[in-house]
Amino acid sequence: SPYRTLGKQAVAFGVAGVKTGRDLVRDVLAVAARLPAPGPGSEVLVVCGDRYHVAVAALAAWQRGHAVALPPNAAPETVRALRRRGGVVALLHDTDTPDEFDVRAWLPAAELSDGPGPEVLAAIDGARVIATVYTSGSTGAHQACPKTAAQLLGEAATLAGCFGVTAARRVVATVPPHHLYGLLFSVLMPLAAGASFVRETPLHAETVAATARRHAADLLVSVPIHLRSLTVLDPGELPAFAAVFSSGAALPSETAAALGGLGLAVTEIYGASETGGIAWRRHLPGALEATWAPLPGVV
């Protein structure tokens, strides 16, 4: 597993501070030690806005022997309904919810980061179910989609390889990390590649541009409606992203063309909660209609 050993390089940037690989491993082990003992089918519901906290919570749950459940949205009624599901043993969050499982309170003191490096994380059996994600509910009730380690972590590693994501990349995302697309592209893929990510989730065009510049982010993960808002910016206001990803809905050709006019080539991802990523196509500036290609391993 690429998540077993992480060094002194930064893995997360944000207003709440920079975190290194050593910090991540130490925090994961500290949180894992405080989680309840695992049982058959036990899950930890993760509802965190800070994607570093999502990484810590997910890895800690896996280390302890639980799967994680990721809500389709952060609406209180949705979270409460999932919390009542059989097998859910804890709600790890970084919100103002009056619950004992606030992941922020479980993190070691910052001064411990200067101490000896922590032990490596335990490997995860590829056949083990480690996550449950949910469909959007646009065509009915939210449907649970279990994912094995091979499916989820394997897809993250495949994406990093397919799109040439290197350790030098810094990812900024406008999509929440509890969504499968957001989890894969803005948390797990960077970790698999040894890259890093911005902890916050900026939404408005000016904020996206400012956040990317502040943290030197050069890879944008977004959705069509957010990408459309970027087209109102003047040339030069947006950083020169090395890659821009879009998913969650069809990318309108006019949005792709407008971004092309800003010098941005958008890579569109086709997939679903049930299947994960299926195909991709790159909208090059000034080019004709892009052609879909299957992701590696998809036949």
Brief summary of the model shown:
By secondary structure, the chain is of the alpha/beta class. It has 9 helices and 14 strands.
Any low-confidence stretches, pLDDT <50, length ≥5? none
How large, in whole angstroms, is the Cα Rg? 19 Å
In N-to-C order, the SSE pattern is EEHEHEHEHEEHEHEHEHEHEEE
Q: Which structural class do the helices and strands define?
A: alpha/beta
Note the gap between the termini.
Answer: 25 Å
Strand content: 15-25%
Number of helices: 9
Shape: globular
Q: What's the arrangement of strands in the largest beta sheet? A: 2-1-9-8-10-11-12-13-14
- Beta strand count: 14
Biggest sheet details: 9 strands, mixed
Helical content band = 25-40%
Q: Please, what is the average pLDDT?
A: 89
Task: Summarize the helices and strands and which ones pair or pack.
Layout: E1 10-13, E2 19-20, H1 21-34, E3 43-47, H2 51-64, E4 67-69, H3 76-83, E5 88-93, H4 103-106, E6 129-134, E7 144-148, H5 149-162, E8 170-173, H6 180-193, E9 196-198, H7 205-214, E10 219-222, H8 224-230, E11 243-246, H9 253-261, E12 266-272, E13 276-283, E14 293-294
Parallel strand pairs: 1-9, 3-4, 3-5, 4-6, 8-9, 8-10, 10-11, 11-12
Antiparallel strand pairs: 1-2, 6-7, 12-13, 13-14
Helix pairs in contact: 1-2, 2-6, 5-6, 8-9
